[in-house]
Amino acid sequence: MTMAVDEPAPDFALTNQHGETVTLSQFRGAKNVVLVFYPFAFSGVCTGELRELRDRYEELSDDTTELLALACDHMFSLRAFADRDGYEFSLLSDFWPHGAVAQAYGVFDESMGCARRTTVIVDRRGIVRWRVDNDISMSRSVDDYRQILSGMH
C-alpha cells in the first residue's frame, strides 16, 4: 500500500538517536512535519542528503515545521551517525518491529530490508500534502521541500 496525498498519515511512536520517543501526533495542530525516509545510515547518498538537511536545517525546521528523518537502523547506529555528522534533528529508528512505519507508509523495500528514499510532508491536521519517491541512488531536493512548505505556512 502506498500512502497517497490527501490521506491521513499513520501515527507512529519511534525512538530517536537520544532514546527519546517521538510521535507524529505530538505535532498535530502545531506543526507541519517533513518525514525523510532514507535507506541506511553511513551510506554515501544518505550521508550527503542528511548533511544538506543539517546545513539547511533552519530553512526547514522552525515554529511551523518539524524535520524528522527515519531509517530502519538501530538507535545506537543512528546515535553514532548523528554524533559523527552533527545532526540536530531527530533520526528515528524504525528498527523493531523492523520497518513497521516504513511499511505503514508504503515505503519499505522488502528485498533490501530498508526504507526507500521517500519524503512525505504532513500538515498540522495530520494529512499527507506531498510526497516524492526517488531511486535509491538519487538524492532529493531540499528546494522542493521548501517550495511545498512555503504554501503551507
Structural summary, described in words:
This protein has 153 residues and is an alpha/beta fold. It is 27% helix and 26% strand. The protein contains five helices and nine strands; from the N terminus they run E-E-E-H-H-E-H-E-H-E-E-E-E-H. It has a five-stranded mixed sheet. It is globular. The mean pLDDT is 94.
Q: What is the helix/strand order?
A: EEEHHEHEHEEEEH
Strands of the widest sheet, in order across it, are: 5-4-3-8-9
Gross geometry? globular
Strand content is: 25-35%
User: Structural class of the helices, strands and pairings?
Assistant: alpha/beta
Portion of residues in helices? 25-40%
In the predicted model, the low-confidence regions spanning at least 5 consecutive residues are none
The radius of gyration over CA amounts to: 14 Å
Task: Supply the key terms.
5 helices; 153 residues; two-stranded antiparallel ribbon; alpha/beta; globular
Describe the secondary-structure layout.
Layout: E1 13-15, E2 21-23, E3 32-37, H1 44-55, H2 57-60, E4 65-71, H3 75-85, E5 90-93, H4 100-104, E6 108-109, E7 114-115, E8 117-122, E9 128-134, H5 142-150
Parallel strand pairs: 3-4, 4-5
Antiparallel strand pairs: 1-2, 3-8, 6-7, 8-9
Structure described in brief:
It contains five helices and nine strands, in the order E-E-E-H-H-E-H-E-H-E-E-E-E-H. With 153 residues, it is of the alpha/beta class.
